[in-house]
What does this fold into?
Amino acid sequence: MTFEKHPSHELFDALVYFLASWTYLASMELLSTRNRFVPNYKCDFHNKLVGVIGGPNSEICLHMATILNIYKIPQLTYGSAPVINNKVQASFFHQMFPNLMHQYKGIVKLLIYFNWVWIGVVSLDDDGEMFVQNVLPIFSKEGICLDFFERISKMTFSGEIFEVSGDWIQAANIIMRSTANVVAVHGEIQTIIVLRMLFYLSKQEAIPVQTKVWMMTAQMDFASLGFQRDFDIDFLHGAISFAIHSKEVLGFQEFLQMKNPTSEEEDSFIKIFWEEVFDCSVPSSGKDGKAGEICTGEEKLETLPVSVFEMSMTGHSYSIYNAVYAVAYALQSMHSCNSQHRAKLKRVREQQPWQLHQFLRSVSFNNGAGEKISFDQNGELVAGFDIINWVIFPNQSFLRVKVGRTDPKAYEDKGFSIHEETITWPSRFNQARPLSLCNDHCHPGYRKTKKEGKPFCCYDCFPCAEGKVSNQKDMNDCFECPEDQYPNKVQDFCIPKSISFLSYQEPLGISLTMFALFFSFITALVLQIFVKHQDTPIVKANNRDLTYTLLICLLLSFLCALLFIDRPQKLTCFLRQTAFGIIFTVAVSCVLAKTAIVVLAFMATKPRSRIRNWVGKRLSSSIVFSCSFVQGIICMVWLTTNPPFPHLDKHSMAEEIVLECNEGSTFMFYCVLSFLGFLAVVSFIVAFLARKLPDSFNEAKFITFSMLVFCSVWLSFVPTYLSTKGKYMVAVEVFSILASSAGLLACIFSPKCYVIVLRPDLNQRKHLINTTH
It folds into this structure.
């Protein structure tokens, strides 16, 4: 190769070294006498072939095996090994390259670690079949999608450069326009040459170059052609690659520094290489150099840019180093074994290459870097991979920094390690971990919904339904909070519910308590007034005992409301509804008895009326007792079959757990209310019919108003009670108790108290008689 060649020719020259014909020729030369190529003929005893180290790619190894397997020559490959289905042929292979599946698993783990689920894949033609078969299914299983899978064409003839370049430009368009920020490249040592051409053609065709994070396999290595010397390699800045695990070998730097093309000990390759990289001519090489451009041998390899020559040992070099020592240790083991039976020199002459296989397979030694080298039962090197971060400098030199490792010998959870803080990312990402997603994450509070016609990594985000939350990114569905918790406003986590009940410490509870105590005081005051003026006509009228009973029931009803306030207990739950039902039944039955007495008293004034016998205390007592007895039976059945009990209601309120009294039997609760309502309606009807009957201060009219208030309150109670939740249901019932009781108190007793206290002149028998007549 020369720099004066056309780039297409030089590119072809570089790629042609990997063609089958060249490999076959080199393999045949190894089997022939040195410098005298006669196929299948060797007369040189001193240069006996015992093994071949081949690479760097699978094609060379495969073509090499076609010839060498015939002679059962041990072959050690330092690059990726070919897929050989013939077990006999495979037995001659010893791979200085670890099992590829370890690398593929490492790639998947790396993608998952960085959450790169939307990627592109690039592969040279025919190089990625194993990658496609073994890795792409794992991608799908682990939730990784491909934006594109691009096979880059290879050039086999120099005349194909223009045809192939068209394919390369098309591939560059696909890669650069992709929304994936990460591109996995599966290839071999020559792949970087092609990648550099892609970027060169992108600039030539004005294709917008978008920075990507390139993830490269260990089979690849940095390679460069002469005409690519001035090409930018900025696209590799921040790239991540896998490499065969290696360590710096002691003395390797000094070994390189001692190289001199003018030395007779050096082979022709060194001289050709020297002329290419230093652009000079070695006199003994036979090359016609330019005047004044003679290689002096004083040139230093360390002065070359890293993009031209690396002074550090790469993974491929490390594999070759270990392969040489593996053959040496295997030969030593074979000679030691055979020396027990025959003279060592004689055995060396008679040894056959195939005899070395068993010793190679079982070889185990520590190399110059202090690492143990051995093969497994499949002839593969027992080793892991280093994870390398590429750092490119402005002068186009670069540094490979080890940032992690995959170790198949470690436990599953420790077989992969990465030091993210040491990674240098491409400049576009401002040293932040790049994202490679089809779309933005669904934040907590949202759920994923698949986009029609798109890979499963592409989705829309929708808010969680009411009452559900999602507390992580990209959740497939939202979930309901536990019973004792509720979603926050943005629905990204659950908040513990507070326990709620109608308490004395809150304004509503305090207000209802104050009203209950106030009306209790008023009722007690009215009762005191009536007891103090018990002998006056207005108190005696309409059955004084019924009046006292009604006032006591109203007093108890106001106090009964206090049972509904504060934390429900077993006893208060047991008593509150039954006490309310019985007290109100007695009160309403007293009102009914009063009304009935008014009607019967009027009817008894008619001549020869038999109803006169019914008028009296026995009638009123019978009404009150019978009504109370029926309600008492209902409450007794309720309490003995399914009584109320304290209960935590976790469902009716979104943000609270309601501590309430469960009625036990809702049917029995409405039976109590229904019987009470029945009495109230009967009392209202009777009072309404008797409202115009002549009576002292027309008590029937006052009872009509009171029962109208009473019925209105409890008729509105039912829908209001059913439409409220939590402690407000209790507040509605307490309010209804207080309002209905206050209605009875105000409508029935306020006119009488007015007469007793403010108009004692009307509280006269004569006035009562005049009013009656």
Notes: Residues 1-14, 344-349 have pLDDT under 50 and may be disordered. The two ends are 142 Å apart (CA to CA). DSSP finds 23 helices and 22 strands in the chain. The domain at 507-645+665-705+729-772 is CATH 1.20.1070 (Rhopdopsin 7-helix transmembrane proteins).
